[in-house]
Design a protein that fits this description.
With 224 residues, this protein is an alpha/beta fold. The chain has 8 helices and 5 strands, in the order H-H-H-H-H-E-E-E-H-E-H-E-H. Helix 2 (26-38) crosses helix 3 (44-62), helix 3 (44-62) packs across helix 4 (72-80) and helix 6 packs parallel to helix 7 (177-185).
Length: 224
């Protein structure tokens, strides 16, 4: 059964910490992070400060046993140990449990660099996401590894999503033969932008439209 609340979803994650020295329950820590992010806190220090500002009542509501929320360093040590794919999977299951698959037909593929993830010469974290506009929800997203590209990441992403009866859209980056084949074999359809990265396909499309236009002109000229 899919988790009913975001807190339930976060509570399904395995604890990556050692059994020794655990002070704060993991669901409480993740609940604090999620709540602080929703309230606009963007940094670990901001999240820790948010917990201190709301004090014992918030700590008890989230499940902290000692009535105290974690410090910045504790948050950093805990979050660094997480498996990003496990977290993404838990969030995806939570979203799937809250959305009727029949409520949307359109899935939009898009690649974005995560804001604030760039640090000096280190490039930012790049993600490919599947967004359902009808329900305003990101159903799943995967990281674009430095050794691959958005196209390959999109193939991985589509492999974990139900595509039967869905229409997948994407820009020219996703206009690839294997991606289109994967969508069709999964029972979906696609609308992809064709640009200069597929010159032969663009020529075929232009030729097809030109033929249709000429046929309509001839029919109009000869019609009784």
């Amino acid at each position: 059964m899919p988790p009913r609340t975001l807190y339930d979803a976060l509570a399904t994650l395995p604890d990556p910490r050692s059994r020794h020295g655990r002070v704060h329950p993991l669901p409480a820590v993740l609940g604090l992070v999620a709540l602080a992010l929703l309230m606009g806190r963007k940094s670990l220090s901001g999240i820790a400060r948010f917990g201190r500002q709301h004090g014992t009542p918030l700590a008890h509501a989230l499940g902290f046993r000692r009535g105290q929320t974690p410090t910045t360093s504790t948050l950093s040590r805990t979050l660094r140990r997480f498996d990003a794919q496990q977290l993404e999977g838990a969030l995806s299951r939570w979203i799937e449990g809250r959305i009727d698959p029949a409520a949307f037909e359109h899935l939009a593929l898009d690649g974005k660099t995560l804001r604030g993830s760039r640090e000096g010469e280190v490039p930012g974290l790049h993600l490919v996401a599947a967004f359902a506009p009808a329900v305003a929800a990101v159903l799943a997203q995967v990281r674009v590894d430095s050794r691959t590209n958005e196209h390959k990441a999109a193939l991985e992403l589509l492999g974990i999503l139900p595509l039967t009866g869905k229409v997948v859209t994407g820009d020219a980056m996703f206009c690839q033969r294997d991606l289109a084949k994967q969508v069709i074999e999964a029972g979906g359809d696609y609308v992809l932008v064709a640009k200069n990265n597929q010159p032969a396909l663009v020529i075929d499309i232009e030729g097809g439209f030109a033929f249709a236009t000429a046929a309509r002109s001839i029919a109009a000229a000869t019609s009784p």
